[in-house]
Amino acid sequence: MQRSGAVIYLVRHAHSTANGAGVLAGRDNSVGLSELGLAQAELLATRLEALGIKRIARSPLKRCRQTIAPLIRAQKNKTRAPQPIVDSRVIEMNYGSWSGKSLKSLAKKPLWSAIQSKPSTVTFPDGESFLEMSARANSAFVEYSKPGSVTCIVSHGDVIKAILAAQLGLSIDSLQKFSVDPASISAIAVSGSSSFLLYANDTSHLRVLQSQNGKSTPAGNPGKYVLGGGAGSTSKAKK
Q1: Exposed end of the chain (fewer CB within 10 Å): N or C?
Q2: Boundaries of every domain in the chain
Q3: Taking the CB of residue 173, how many other CB atoms lie within 10 A of it?
């Protein structure tokens, strides 16, 4: 990448209590990180510290604030430490009346099939469409892609999937082809008008937790119910 380019790190919030319960949290700001998620956030901070991040933007929701908190604490005594920008453009999708419902029950609804195969046609009841969510999220991405910038965006599974699809020149209907686990990092380099995927859904910094959890599923396994990003490869660890 040219020195004048930009790098954007897309970080999904760590494992939440809603992930553990199999519930679609949506914009419920009372949902925080689980015990597992708090441990993930500490490991994530160590990884992010080494990346030379100059700017942090995050979703307004509690689970994203808690995810980035260990990094902020670690950097608080450093000069020029970036303070998070709270950006509503990267907030969780508005799932409308689906919010707060179990994924198991939602998977039985007729709309579920379209969510998996043709999300471009889906607007959630009393909520927003995938196209609306993608437009707002990618407008933030473009703003943070100024030459020379190194930015970390802390957001949500479907939001990050929508950014990955758009920046790789793919349709929003490719959304479910991506896995974005809790506390994962995806990286995109931007040079001029071109975007380049450096890596996606990297959870190598969480290996110590995965090795401690004998029941964990293979890394990158999105689980049975693909909406909201899934609970991730350590979802069977204690909540």
Answers
A1: N
A2: 6-212
A3: 15
